[in-house]
């Protein structure tokens, strides 16, 4: 059976500067909310043309910015849901955890590593290194975070209540880096694409899973630029 989901990165939010996004608890900016609404309406136009409906259970990361993004989609696309929509938060969809140093600036994290005789200094570019995991309790690598998100998506795929019809789309709202790494684990993109690609704020990438084959039905990955805000 065809199983279709839309992977959506949250909108722009009040992010601390030079700090891993990880578990930052802040809300969407006004501009971020506006862009999510715009993207949801554009998606609605495609839904009208394609004949797809939306699964009534919307999965979102437990972080505020993802929940807000999911709620905006519910508000803007209410007519397309196949039942009364509900946003359900899942910690498995959160961004990569940096554990005990969550919400500290990059410089402070690196200083702590230098001061602790048990640890090596962080390698250059560690924040975007898919394999590197900080040596703190609760930390994980980007690949581990992606595997966590991919497992959530695969669990949804194998759930017997996954969809009421082949024309239903599951909305999954999370975070750019963990979604891209999940897409690698799901064979949607190649490993070399993880750093080359990003995700547009609030923009859905719709994927149709049929066995081992994945077809992209709607949406575009963003070509990463050096000046992009880290995700």
Structure explained in plain terms:
- By secondary structure, this protein is of the alpha/beta class.
- Helices cover about 30% and strands about 20% of the residues.
- The chain has helices at about 30-50, 65-75, 105-115, 140-160, 175-185, 195, and strands spanning about 5-10, 55, 55-60, 85-90, 170-175, 195-200, 205-210, 215-220, 220-225.
- A hairpin with a 2-residue loop joins strand 7 and strand 8 (about 215-220).
- Helix 1 packs across helix 2 (about 65-75) and helix 4 packs across helix 5.
- The longest helix is centred in the N-terminal third of the chain and has 21 residues, at about 30-50.
- It is globular.
- The model has no long low-confidence stretch (mean pLDDT about 95).
Structure, briefly:
This protein has helices spanning 30-50, 64-76, 106-115, 142-158, 176-185, 193-196, and strands at residues 3-9, 53-54, 57-61, 86-90, 168-174, 197-198, 204-210, 213-218, 222-223.
Layout of secondary structure:
Layout: E1 3-9, H1 30-50, E2 53-54, E3 57-61, H2 64-76, E4 86-90, H3 106-115, H4 142-158, E5 168-174, H5 176-185, H6 193-196, E6 197-198, E7 204-210, E8 213-218, E9 222-223
């Amino acid at each position: 059976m065809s199983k279709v989901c839309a992977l959506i990165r949250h909108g722009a939010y009040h992010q601390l500067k030079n700090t891993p996004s990880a578990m930052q608890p802040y809300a969407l900016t006004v501009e971020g909310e506006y862009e999510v609404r715009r993207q949801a309406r554009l998606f609605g136009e495609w839904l009208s043309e394609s004949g797809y409906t939306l699964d009534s259970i919307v999965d979102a990361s437990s972080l505020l910015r993802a929940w807000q993004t999911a709620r905006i989609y519910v508000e803007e696309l209410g007519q397309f849901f196949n039942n009364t929509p509900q946003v359900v938060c899942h910690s498995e969809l959160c961004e990569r955890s940096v554990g005990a140093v969550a919400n500290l600036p990059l410089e402070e994290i690196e200083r702590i590593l230098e001061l602790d005789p048990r640890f090596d200094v962080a390698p250059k570019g560690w924040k975007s290194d898919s394999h590197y995991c900080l040596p703190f309790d609760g930390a994980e690598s980007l690949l581990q975070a992606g595997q966590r998100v991919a497992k959530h998506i695969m669990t949804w795929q194998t759930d017997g209540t996954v969809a009421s019809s082949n024309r239903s789309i599951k909305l999954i709202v999370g975070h750019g880096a963990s979604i891209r790494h999940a897409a690698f684990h799901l064979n949607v993109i190649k490993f070399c694409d993880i750093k080359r690609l990003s995700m547009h704020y609030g923009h859905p990438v719709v994927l149709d899973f049929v066995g081992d084959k994945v077809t992209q039905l709607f949406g575009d990955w963003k070509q990463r630029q050096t000046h992009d805000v880290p995700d």
